[in-house]
Amino acid sequence: MATRHLSHEEARAFYDRFGRNQDWQRFYEDPAIDALLRRADFESARSVVELGCGTGRLAARLLEERLPSEATYAGFDLSRTMARLARERIAPWSDRTEIRLTDGSPHLPLGDDTCDRFLSAYVLDLLSEQEIHATLHEAGRVLAPGGRLCLIGLTFGQTLLSRCVCRLWTTLHSLSPRVVGGCRPLRLAAYAAEWQITHREVVCAFAICSEVLIAEQPRPGQSR
């Protein structure tokens, strides 16, 4: 049976309603975000693009704790509620940040080679396989040479308890993706096979496991 995914309209409606409640998930998201922040060298970044900025919580951490004072940030989300919350949260840095609504398409209104970090946390696990590949292709287009792909997503359990939680999550997703916000466990590394993976780890918190993946542009001559 084909995996059911939320349409763009269904995802927008869900996250417009879910809104500020998104931040309650920090109990399992924050340990994975901490791991990404330790490894992705945002301290040397000059331009960050985030696909699926949510409430702007990760953006605010980057701007407050990691990014140089001259670095710019652009966040994209298809939820109007999320975009509004993100704008409010990063208002102190409004002179070098922007939040834009999208239609859910993988294509971003950016030129080639325009950023040095492409960030997406807990977004690819909402997408179909075709959309995941298209999103990674788009990341390769907008990243400048030497730029880094920075991803976090739900992944499969590593212990007996986390495997049981993963099995339950997967079952709920198969019955009704809305119940779990459209997300399901993935192996991100399998989709990034054409990239140079520089760091990968699985972080489990409260029996929910997340995959942290950092990769660089393919070498010259390799396809994206």
List key phrases describing it.
7 helices, globular, 224 residues, single chain, 7 strands, alpha/beta
Please trace the helix and strand order, writing H or E for each element: HHEHEHEEHEHHEE
Roughly what fraction of the amino acids lie in strands?
15-25%
Largest sheet data? 7 strands, mixed
Class computed from helices, strands and strand pairing: alpha/beta
- Low-confidence segments, ≥5 residues, pLDDT <50? none
- pLDDT averaged over residues: 93
Number of strands: 7
Helix content: 25-40%
Gyration radius, rounded: 16 Å
Give the termini separation.
29 Å
Label the overall shape. Answer: globular
Summarize the structure.
By secondary structure, the chain is α/β, with parallel strands linked by helices. The protein has seven helices and seven strands; from the N terminus they run ααβαβαββαβααββ.
Folded structure, characterized:
- The radius of gyration is 16 Å and the shape is globular.
- The protein is α/β, with parallel strands linked by helices and 224 residues long.
- The longest helix has 16 residues, at 160-175.
- Helix 3 (57-66) links the parallel strand 1 and strand 2 (72-77).
- The model has no long low-confidence stretch (mean pLDDT 93).
- The protein has seven helices and seven strands, in the order H-H-E-H-E-H-E-E-H-E-H-H-E-E.
- The protein has a seven-stranded mixed sheet, with helices on both faces.
- It has helices at 8-18, 26-39, 57-66, 80-89, 129-142, 160-175, 188-191, and strands at residues 47-51, 72-77, 97-101, 115-121, 143-154, 196-205, 208-216.
